[in-house]
Design brief:
Oligomer: single chain
Strand order of the largest sheet: 1-11-8-7-5-6
Strand content: 15-25%
Shape: globular
Bound molecules: guanine
Structural class: alpha/beta
């Protein structure tokens, strides 16, 4: 089998264009959507992600502000910055780029963001609503995966989905979204016994482990949809968590790296920012 590629870049461009159209009437009403991006320290991967996010804002017509804070910023200073952005009228979305330097309590600072401006969907209020299947600001990467499934016409209800990785950013919210959509969901982690057998039952396999080429052909059910969330820097360049060349011979659909899930994360961030501004 030769898997069909799910072109995340093309879908993301379409979403961003659509956002630009949604922004027009907001602008006319004097409410240009605004995003504040906070980055603490000099993590090179974060710098690339943040640059892509700011660029996408420019493309869509979203106002953006970059707040680059030094690596020795303490929790109190960061909380003050968040408090001031919570109050800022022209800011509708606040994104705190992760990871944060050690010594800062992630849960505490994420919970300090006004839930109405929490365009990453990491605030307990938004996670709680997602858990109940209620409208809210939902995390961008899993939202992007769901949107790719929807636009590719892949049925979710009744299918078996397996997620490899249980992070708060991807694995857990991905599980909630797939459950809400009617899939039968299994979430695996590094200690899962007989991972290949479990992965091999998936109609939809989501790889979010952060290990280059971790998913091999024998872990994939023939015809399965494989969504590769990994972005790993290797001597051979950027690669996903899925061994792409092996997987494409078995899967029915697959997302490439780069050009798959990554651009969708950015597009959903823009979409969440427009949603937050529209109120
Ligand atoms: N670091 C890696 N992925 C993400 C993300 O989706 N949002 C934020 N804020 N930080 C990240």
């Amino acid at each position: 089998m030769n898997a069909k590629l799910i072109d995340g870049k093309r879908i993301a461009d379409d979403i961003i264009e659509n956002c630009a159209r949604r922004i027009d009437p907001l602008k006319s009403a004097g409410k240009t959507p605004g995003l504040a991006v906070i980055m603490v320290g000099e993590n090179p991967a974060s710098q690339v992600y943040v640059r892509n996010k700011v660029r996408a804002c420019e493309k869509a017509g979203v106002y953006s502000e970059m707040h680059h804070m030094s690596a020795d910023t303490d929790e109190k200073t960061l909380l003050k910055k968040i408090a001031s952005l919570n109050e800022a009228e022209k800011i509708h979305g606040i994104l705190l780029q992760l990871p944060l330097p050690t010594g800062i309590d992630n849960e505490k600072v994420l919970a300090a963001i006004n839930p109405q401006k929490d365009v990453d969907g990491f605030h307990p209020f938004n996670i709680g609503r997602l858990c109940s299947g209620l409208p809210a600001l939902w995390p961008c990467t899993p939202s992007g995966c769901m949107e790719m499934l929807r636009r590719t016409g892949i049925p979710v209800a009744g299918g078996r989905a397996v997620i490899i990785g249980r992070s708060n950013i991807v694995g857990k919210p991905m599980a909630l979204m797939l459950i809400n959509a009617g899939a039968t969901v299994t979430v695996c982690n590094s200690q899962t016994v007989d991972l290949p057998a479990i992965a091999g039952e998936a109609d939809i396999l989501v790889a979010a482990v952060g290990r280059a080429n971790f998913i091999s052909a024998e872990m994939i059910k023939p015809g399965a949809v494989v969504l590769d969330v990994g972005i790993n820097r290797t001597p051979d360049g950027l690669v996903g968590d899925v061994n792409f060349n092996e997987a494409r011979t078995v899967a029915g659909h697959i997302t490439p790296v780069p050009g798959g899930v990554g651009p969708m994360t950015v597009a959903m961030l823009i979409s969440n920012t427009v949603q937050a501004a529209a109120g």
